[in-house]
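Predict structure. Chain length: 278.
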Amino acid sequence: MVEAQSKQAEPPVAAGTPILTVNNIEVVYDEVILVLRGVSLSVPQGEIVALLGPNGAGKSTTLKAISGLLRTEDGEVTRGNVSFMGEEIANMAPEQIVRRGIFQVMEGRRIVEDMTVIENLRLGAYTRRDGGVRRDLDMVFDFFPRLRERTGLAGYLSGGEQQMLAISRALMARPKMILLDEPSMGLSPLLVKEVFGIIRQLNRELGITILLVEQNARMALQAASYGYIMESGKIVLDGTQAELVDNEDVREFYLGGGGEERRSFKNLKSFKRRKRWL
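Prediction complete.
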């Protein structure tokens, strides 16, 4: 495998050191709609961290606040800060954030269907000025051999293959960190298992840090070392993988299928929030 992380000019960050810190951010859309209310989280170098919660909780907005994609939707971080490797990046342009090493794989995959697989992959490398694109294509095909066989338009790929292409396109940017938004959406259980296996492999073999938004809480917590739960634009619970899996409320409402009537986590007394990023 190509050691994609070894080519970077910056000094390495020690494992376990926060590479990303989101501190008390508020996000407003269209100058009036408050969506995030004081969100704070931390992602250590080389780990997978899960961000869980019901639809509309603000998970995708949190990722866009980190990646700069809020700017494309008339959104803005109006309070707090987002720090990546010690640099403030809140409200920075998306292409500048990609150059710094963060790439977001958006919900719904967002591949360009009337372009070929290779053309989609080369789009991921659009900010690069080095000569390693061909080598990295080979690396991507080692991880996703099925894509090597697909030479036609990306729109003809299956849903699972499109998700593989979306993740591969992110790899072509040589990211230090990938933001994954609902990678299991629309996939069969077998493909979900395959995609999550690849996510763990990328983290383990390339050392890529991953912040994962996922409705499938069980799969997410199997992959992640730490997790945060959001409701109504706020982080209401966080803990290690073991703490969350062992928590009775998490098991009932996220791992055991507590039905549609979910009570709020906001007033939980049985779980002490950990704030190791402070």
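Summary: The chain has one domain: 17-255.
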